[in-house]
Amino acid sequence: MKLTILGCHSATPRTNTNPTSQVLEIKNHMFLIDCGEGTQVELRRNKIKFSRIKHIFISHLHGDHYFGLVGLVSTFRLLTRETELHIYGPKGLKEVITLQLKLSDSWTNYPLIFHELTSKDSELIYEDNKVEVHTIPLHHRVYTNGFLFKEKENERKLDINAVLNANINMAYYRKLKQGADVENDDGIIIKNEMVTKDPSPSQSYAFCSDTVYDENIVPLIKNTTVLYHESTFLDKNEDLCERTKHSTARQAAIIAKKANVDALILGHFSTRYNGYEEFRSEAKEEFDNVLLAEDGKTFEF
Amino acid sequence: MKLTILGCHSATPRTNTNPTSQVLEIKNHMFLIDCGEGTQVELRRNKIKFSRIKHIFISHLHGDHYFGLVGLVSTFRLLTRETELHIYGPKGLKEVITLQLKLSDSWTNYPLIFHELTSKDSELIYEDNKVEVHTIPLHHRVYTNGFLFKEKENERKLDINAVLNANINMAYYRKLKQGADVENDDGIIIKNEMVTKDPSPSQSYAFCSDTVYDENIVPLIKNTTVLYHESTFLDKNEDLCERTKHSTARQAAIIAKKANVDALILGHFSTRYNGYEEFRSEAKEEFDNVLLAEDGKTFEF
After folding, report:
1. A78 pLDDT exceeds 90?
2. pLDDT greater than 90 at residue B107
3. Which residue among A148, A278, B1, B224 is least enclosed by CB atoms within 10 Å?
4. DSSP summary character for residue B71
């Protein structure tokens, strides 16, 4: 699982900071999460192939999370893309993108499929044989969802020496990986746990931005491998959280602790601060494994 | 008259090239012309104060000319702007900007005034006591206008020694500057041309992008000081001009020559080319004073 931060700053793009966008590489997918102005340039800067992006997830319709989307959709067209593009985001997104395509008299030459979200409950919005994506309803000034990306349980691993010794036909290897007991060439039933090992643990990633501190999300992200939680402010500006529906670094860390995640990545920093180390130190008072997002930074898990 | 090129490349923003946007400083105005994605960052990079921009002119609704506008409008709001903002552009622009504001539940706290254009004839769209702005109907794939910015005729200059010798009361200086004859303190009529000099010549700037080669614009831009004319292609790709409704460098230069302008600036280069010197050399075969636009470059006239 590899996460590339294209932008992790709030409000407006600047010469040295980008608004929210990130790419999650998981089970051979490249999921683009949020798409602030300038995202297509950051994709190029980070050498991410446009053609590998097939699913885009938009948390909410504030500009710093999606003003780069229409440009990316248009650029895909200019690059003569033919592959389907699926966009998941709040109701209204389809209207705003298609209106702009209509005004420019240039429809896409690839299938552009919108999955508009309106539910206030968590939903399964994407699934294949390797991953699932669920929404995480968040509490912000407008309708907002975070997204939980979960690898499905991996297959059991063959203990190849044990398998050979047990005289099992190769035709049964698939069943073994799926956890079944099998009959060997001598007609003896071989218990699965005798010839296989536990699978490598499945990983998961929860993206939660923008949101006020909200313990309702804890059950949804329980035991997640990595949690990205916004931390727009430091303790000294906590008074701004309720009005703007944002969180502090400490609040993000409390959520991480309650959800028992392995690692917390902080981001969506307000540009009022000069450095971000204080975000880490305030969060570490509540939760140990705190990482800081940074434009252009890659995390591998 | 000072022109700052924020972006002068066609189609898509890239790590080293920006789509169309420029700022014309004329008679204390800062006119923003077109606003491709990333324009607000380029304004910051070029240290142009956001508060000085009160009028934005959008040529047409292709993304490389206006996808940065909604972000700029939103950033003005976040910066608690109170001054009026006037936006001139094709019909449809108001709908697309206000839809995005509505979806983000964040109206502007400053007056945002749209002047939607639909005429196929040249129109006077802005006027004060120092400048006029006229549309230049262009011929592109969608409804498009160029813009002609004209200083009004400057006042005559006082020949101060002659004025003093002629014994003229200071109260008449204003009338002299406006070209009138006046009576001096001895009751004698003083002919204006005896005590004043010709005004400094008025300057003008014509922005023409995007457009196919079109001689119909020549009368509208006749004797303009500076013409910015798109030149997306070189001679060798002239065949693409008719289909895409763009021009070559040579065609831009022929327009400059026919319109008898002082200087021609070429821009809106296709990213298919590596360098741009060939644009200059091909254009110079038709017209002498050819300049090349470049992101971040400033021209003073």
Report:
1. yes
2. no
3. A278
4. H
Q: Which two tokens stand for residue A164?
A: 């050979």
**How many other CB atoms are found less than 10 A from the CB of residue B158?**
16
Task: Note whether B100 and B68 are within 8 A (CB).
Answer: no
Helices B93-103 and A93-103 cross at an angle (nearest 10°) of: 170
**Burial class, A267, CB count within 10 angstroms (exposed 0-12 / middle 13-18 / buried 19+):** buried
Does the annotation place B60 within a ligand binding site? Answer: yes
What is the distance between the alpha carbons of residues B138 and B212, in angstroms, rounded to a whole number? 8
- Count CB neighbours of B220 within 10 A: 18
Q: What CATH code is assigned to B2-154+200-300? A: 3.60.15.10
Contact call for A11 and B44, based on CB within 8 A = no
Contact A116, A131 (CB under 8 A): no
Look-up of token digits 């706290």: B109
- How confident is the model at residue B274, as a pLDDT? 87
Average model confidence (pLDDT) across chain B: 96
Q: Which residues of A touch B100 (CB under 8 A)?
A: 61, 63, 67, 96
With beta carbons less than 8 A apart as the criterion, state whether A62 and A19 touch. no
CB pairs < 8 Å spanning A and B: 96
- Say which DSSP state B233 is in: B
Complex-level ipTM: 0.91
